[in-house]
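Forwarding the complex inputs:
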Amino acid sequence: MKKSRAEIIEILLRELKEMKPELPDIITEETSFQDNCGMDSLALSEYIARMEYAFKVEVPDSEWKSLSTLGLVADYVEKQGR
Amino acid sequence: MLPLAPLVLAYQDKGYSVEPITAENVPDLDQLQQLAANSDAMLLIGSARRSPQSVLSGPMLTTHGGRSVPVGWLPLVSEEGLARFAANAAKIHRRQEGHQPIAVLSQWQGQYLCLAQRIETLLSQQNTTYRWSSDLLYREDMVKGIRSGLAAAIYVGHGRPIGWVGYRGTRAHHFKGLDGEPTGALFSLCCRTASRRRTGLSFAEELPLLGIAGATLGSVNDTLHKNNTRWAVGICAALEAGVSNLAELILKAFPTEISATKDYRIMGDPLIPLVGADGSIEAANAIPIYP
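Prediction (whole assembly, two chains):
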């Protein structure tokens, strides 16, 4: 069944908090992984891999860098119909 | 088939139905898909002239009915090698289910140490994990650790057809002549350890034939760090979910992105249990590390 935006955000937040438990609770869709969460390219690659695994979606190599905020990742998952 | 008898017996003792099939030549993909139609896993053994890259298209076959079936490869170099593989794989099949000690191995380089640390963190909730990255111990000790009878070991770093770049170079011969117990499955999340380029047998093929691991997962080509990360995330999630053998793990961990999967191959027994030997935790605890 297709997940609602809120459900997608909840899963994305859970994955993010599992990776970086030290992050504050106030994370919005505009929060930048790099600038606000201090994630480097390695951490981002793990996050995208976790997201792919959680939603069973494929993110082509060309799209990885554009997924820089929680909202953009949620947009991507929604677009894939998950 | 005689050298494989201990493994066939171990399968049968567990209630698996085993169907040995012999053929003049290594079957092509279409024939393999047909053969896999009624199987949960396949082990293909054939002429060492064939390489992991030329025989298989990935760690799983998709049957004509759309089912995924993990498939392993072993080159027939000698009956002695095959017998050694079968005897050690059978030993692993006879282990008591219970603990799942896992080693996390890494080359001494920032990005790999970082990934190794993440793997350790992801695994340590459910499993006994040993961080044996090359900043913490010497190759000699790491090799002894691999002989502790672990359920699995995961290496991240650079790789070559002849072995790992980490630990000042790790080759199959470094494992020879050491007493110990085989590791269930050994995952090389790096480039080319299943490639035959400028080598007789690849590192990933040699280890099962030497009885070091019941199975290995390695790549036949160069890999991208992000694809290895995809595998690492999937493998950790599968192990944390409690998979009991390699086939279950591959089915669960298989990344959705095709570029992450097409270069990887299973060498050895795809049904190898991911279980530690009796005494493996004590043996692994005795490996010295130098933090």
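Chain A touches chain B at residues 19, 42, 45-46, 48-50, 52-53, 56-61, 64 (CB under 8 Å).
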